[in-house]
Specification:
There is one protein chain. This protein is mostly beta strands. 11% of the residues lie in helices and 59% in strands. The protein has a 48-stranded mixed sheet that branches. β32 and β33 form a beta hairpin. About 1% of the residues have low confidence.
């Protein structure tokens, strides 16, 4: 009996010793665990421990580390487990409430220590519960504002073998809440799949499905997936919340769009380190859609969709292709920099993938087809085939592209342009400093009507069309300073005008062929201007946009062809003027100053010009005529003109003269004429007009002609049918008066020069009056060979063309009455137009004049 008691006491002592040892060992391990994790305080209340669970009503934990202090308080903690042999397996952990406060106690010494890269663990820790539920938590963490709270709930679960792993995290802030759901599963030995979704305020916001494939020994990890944001909620509060944790300098961030959609797909080969942010190779596609207008301050309201495909190779990103359909409305103040008529109200932009551009061959580029449509007073459409560089050299190439524009009525610098239309096809390239474009056929500019309201001397152009083929546009700019240093447009130009109207020109079509060059400060043009009539001129135009416009023009009028051409071109070309031979050249310089009248200076040079005016013929007109025009004031200077002959039926010439003529273009024949001494040969003598000044606006005009040594024999030859002849010379004064009603002569006088001469008149001229009159019979006989010493005449010529000639003749016939002196006073009346007509019909001028006179006579006879 005693032995049994001793044995029991010994066993009890051993048990107590073992229990004490276990307790002491557990206490040591517990204290060591607390010290290892820097846990300075761990208190609990309402502890209930069993072999399968542990529960606490409340606990408090405080952890102290060098750089931070963590305190946690929990309510209603329940931890349950089950036994796998002698090894416990944690089944669940639940908390009704958890509050964690993390405070930073000191700055870390090294801020540049890189964040450890994330690595997927091969297996989940055995101590991880299969189910975790935290019904309510509040965590206070350091942030940019100092400390920031996170509030919400957490639920997580896993299978006993580890995966799949599910997570539900709910975060709340004020009246808003975010639900985050995720699931991680292992699809096969090397593939992990993660699905996740986010809802904000109950609205589905984001969903993601992604796969991660572990790398073999000779391969890289692979990461692929898809992300969808079907709705972009109004979550300005979320941005403010995020900025508390990650400050961003975005003072001009636009307001959030009312609605939108974003999606992305990717497939990447990762580096062996497994970094998700630095893929080694692969592709990605991003899509975004904004269905309702999104206001971007100072730019526009934007809506539409964008799709972008990217590729990464050896860690280098590039855009492989892209497309977009975007509408911009309510455009910002930037549009005010454009002229008012060119300001769009809206822009439609479309971008599509395109074929490669040959000019960019060998360079990595992103070829796109870009279409831009401008809606407003002016309508413009751009179809651009571009190749955008994805690495240096940064050169943008333009393939076959097209710009079409229709513009409203425009006015600038006094010019009025009605509804111009532009159709420009071009190719080219641009870099950070230079843009070069070359136009291609069929490129054109059409303007229904172009006029200058500031001067009636500028032409009105109707139906203007410009062929813009092969023009080159070059722009030099500084992208850093956003300045344009130069802009040049040059190349061949072909312009046509359906009808050109100008006071001095007959309405008809014109065309210009030449070269143009335009810069920021103006344009120049050089080429040939040609009318439908065949008239053409060389034109050199210099037109600065803010200065004086100048133009140099030159042309030739040659022979009959030139005469006909210019008679169909110039309004002031006399209807009865024909040039038959010779050349006239015109060199003109035009000047148009701002708000000043048009000015013209020119020289018209005659070289052996011959021709017909009305029923007169002339030959070999030579000499220069200088012309000056300012507004409507015209001044003409002819310092030395010579005319070999002028033949209205009586040959006159050569004629030499010089002088000036000033007038108004609206009344060309009512100006001031100033002449230097003018001389001409006539009938073997000379006619002279002394220097003088005449106002043609105040008729009648008196021209005091002086006649010297006119040959009487040549005068008598004007009457071949009357058998008249004579010798001697005549001199005197012939005052000619010019007025609108016609030409007349008053009190002119011609006298024979000493010693006189001879006259022979057929006797039959006096037969009728000599019958029965002995004295007249004697005169008739004497006139058959009359030697005169005095021959005086008075000359009057009326406006109807009748010449009144009074003759006083003294002399004798040596064979009659022994040379008895005879004095005769004779009055002769002659119709000079009829005489000239007779002479012109006789062929004394030329055949052309003869035909013109015949036609004139026929018209006169047929007139009523």
């Amino acid at each position: 009996m005693l032995t049994r008691r001793r044995t029991s006491a010994l066993l009890l002592a051993i048990f107590i010793t073992v229990v004490a040892a276990i307790v002491l060992a557990a206490r040591h391990l517990w204290l060591e665990l607390l010290q290892t994790h820097n846990i300075r305080q761990l208190d609990w209340q309402g502890l209930d421990l069993s072999t399968t669970s542990l529960s606490m009503d409340r606990f408090t934990l405080r952890q102290q580390q060098a750089e931070r202090e963590v305190s946690a308080q929990g309510v209603q903690l329940i931890l349950s487990w089950s036994w796998d042999g002698f090894m416990p397996r944690v089944d669940s952990l639940s908390l009704n409430g958890l509050q964690v406060d993390v405070r930073q106690t000191a700055e870390t010494e090294d801020h540049t220590t890189p964040t450890p890269r994330f690595q997927f663990p091969d297996t989940l820790p055995d101590w991880l519960p299969e189910q975790v539920d935290v019904r309510s938590f509040r965590v206070t963490l350091p942030c940019a504002d100092g400390t920031c709270p996170l509030e919400g709930s957490l639920s997580a679960s896993r299978k006993p073998e580890g995966l799949p792993l599910a997570l539900n995290l709910a975060l709340t802030r004020h009246d808003h809440y975010i639900d985050i759901n995720g699931a991680l599963d292992q699809l096969d030995a090397r593939r992990l799949n993660l699905t996740a979704s986010i809802s904000i305020d109950g609205n589905p916001t984001l969903s993601m499905n992604t796969d991660y494939v572990h790398a073999d020994s000779d391969a890289h990890p692979h990461w692929s997936g898809k992300l969808d944001m079907p709705n972009l909620p109004r979550a300005d509060w979320l941005l403010t919340w995020i900025q508390q944790w990650y400050p961003m300098t975005i003072p001009d961030l636009p307001p959030q769009p009312d609605a939108g959609m974003v999606s992305a797909q990717w497939s990447f080969s990762l580096p062996t380190s497994g970094s998700f942010t630095s893929p080694q190779s692969g592709t990605a596609t991003v899509k975004a859609e904004i269905p309702r207008p999104w206001p971007l301050p100072t730019i526009a309201t934007v809506q539409g969709n964008v799709e972008l495909s990217l590729a990464v190779d050896q860690g280098q990103w590039r855009v492989s292709t892209g497309q977009a359909d975007v509408q911009l409305e309510a455009l910002g103040d930037w549009v005010l920099k454009l002229p008012q008529v060119l300001r769009p109200k809206a822009l439609d932009v479309s971008i599509r993938p395109a074929e490669a551009i040959p000019a960019a061959d060998g360079q990595p580029t992103l070829p796109l087809q870009i279409a831009i449509a401008s809606r407003g007073a002016a309508k413009a459409d751009i179809q651009a085939h571009v190749a955008i560089p994805i690495e240096a050299p940064w050169i943008v190439y333009f393939g076959q592209s097209r710009l079409q524009g229709a513009f409203p009525q425009m006015s600038a610098g006094g010019w009025s342009v009605s509804r111009p239309k532009l159709d420009l096809r071009f190719t080219g390239q641009a870099d950070k400093n230079t843009l070069t474009l070359t136009s291609a056929a069929p490129s054109s500019l059409t303007i229904p009507e172009l006029s200058n309201a500031g001067s009636d001397q500028w032409p009105l152009l109707k139906g203007l069309a410009a062929n813009l083929r092969s023009l080159q546009l070059t722009a030099n700019y500084d992208t850093a300073d956003k300045t344009l240093s130069s802009l040049t447009l040059k190349g061949p130009a072909h312009l046509t005008v359906a009808q050109l109207e100008q006071p001095q020109l007959k309405p008809q079509s014109w065309q210009f062929d030449g070269d143009v060059s335009a810069q920021l400060d103006g344009l120049t043009a050089n080429g040939i201007l040609k009318a439908k009539s065949g008239a053409q001129a060389r034109l050199d135009l210099n037109a600065p946009f803010a200065g004086t416009i100048t133009a140099d023009a030159s042309t030739r009028i040659s022979g009959k062809t030139g005469s006909k051409v210019w008679s169909k071109t110039l309004n002031q070309w006399p209807a009865l003027l024909d040039i038959t031979e010779g050349t006239a050249t015109l060199d003109a310089h035009l000047t148009q100053r701002k708000n000043k009248p048009l000015q013209l200076k020119g020289t018209l040079n005659f070289e052996n010009i011959s021709g017909i005016y009305n029923r007169m013929a002339w030959t070999r007109l030579n000499g220069p005529v200088n012309v000056g025009l300012s507004d409507k004031h015209l001044i003409t200077r002819f310092p030395a003109l010579t005319l070999e002959s002028l033949n209205p039926g009586i040959p006159v010439g050569p004629i030499t003269t010089g002088g000036t003529y000033e007038t108004n273009t609206t009344q060309l024949t009512r100006g001031q004429l100033t002449l230097a001494p003018t001389t001409s040969d006539l009938l073997g003598g000379t006619i002279r007009l002394g220097p003088g000044n005449w106002d043609l606006s105040a008729p009648p005009i008196r021209l005091p002609l002086e006649a010297h040594n006119l040959d009487l024999s040549q005068l008598m030859q004007l009457y071949p049918a009357r058998n008249l002849s004579g010798t001697g010379t005549l001199s005197g004064q012939i005052p000619v008066w010019l007025e609108p009603e016609g030409v007349h002569v008053e009190s002119g006088a011609l006298n024979a020069e000493a010693p006189g001469g001879r006259l022979t008149l057929p006797g039959d001229r006096f037969q009728a009056i000599a019958q029965g009159n002995q004295a007249m019979a004697l005169v008739a006989e004497a006139m058959k060979d009359f030697h005169y010493s005095v021959l005086d005449s008075t000359i009057d010529y009326d406006r109807e063309g009748t010449l009144q000639l009074g003759l006083h003749i003294e002399g004798n016939n040596p064979k009659v009455s022994q040379g008895q002196p005879v004095v005769l006073n004779i009055n002769i009346e002659e119709n000079i137009p009829a005489l000239l007509t007779s002479l012109q019909l006789s062929g004394r001028v030329n055949d052309a004049v003869t035909e013109r006179v015949k036609k004139w006579l026929e018209e006169q006879q047929s007139a009523p």
